[in-house]
Amino acid sequence: MRTILLGIALLFLLCFLVLPLAAVFAEALRRGFGAYLASFRDPAALSAIRLTLLAAGIAVPANLVFGLAASWAIARFKFPGRNLLVTLIDLPFAVSPVISGLIYVLLFGMQGAFGPWLAQHNIQIIFAVPGIVLATVFVTFPFVARELIPLMQEQGSEEEEAALLLGASGWQTFWRVTLPNIKWGLLYGVILCNARAMGEFGAVSVVSGHIRGKTNTVPLHVEILYNEYNFVGAFAVASLLALLALLTLVIKSALEWKIRAETAALQAEEAA
Length: 272
Prior knowledge:
Blueprint: H1 2-28, H2 33-38, H3 43-76, H4 82-89, H5 91-94, H6 97-108, H7 115-120, H8 129-140, H9 142-155, H10 158-165, H11 170-199, H12 202-208, H13 218-227, H14 231-271
Helix pairs in contact: 1-14, 3-8, 3-9, 3-11, 3-13, 6-8, 6-12, 8-11, 8-12, 9-11, 10-11, 11-14, 13-14
């Protein structure tokens, strides 16, 4: 029975994970390595890569700060609206990214609630970089908080309370007690957040306007190349996202191994 279940699992992974990834790289290199590299010399491709890095570079630190603050508040304090905050953190998991993009259009578009005021002050959010950043922040903000909340609840607050009783300030307690205890979970959440930020399509597609060389991220640029029947270019740029996914899996596995090793060592120390 175990062999049958293992065989089914491996067959599923082969058909739905390994073969598609292999097809991406095979199509990207179909005309040789020179054509593959030429796909990244296109100014539109370079612009898409820069914009993707910019959006992720803003969204990930913002969600890092939010995730730390929200998880610390939820895990350590009781306050009115606590359950509502937890629900709102999970909202991007429940709402389609396309819907979240449409919400920003309704708020900041020319016919939106704040559109006329923004136009009067010459501020453009929709079909510009700010809208892409906002959409990216929205779809990625649960990842850090959702990794830290159960971790901090499981660890409890005894060590932090002991530090405070010994005279440590709030910041000293955070840097010397809280942060070392959650560092691996925090890094795990940041990695997942970054991977989602770079690969987001739905919400960004709605607010970007698909302006080539200006508001296209890497996933949107792949779609444009594919629609133009430039399959080598599309799969070449898509291979960047595939490599990012593979790198994320490797780092994720390494972190899980590190966490298990530290947990086992701590349990052995407590048993001794």
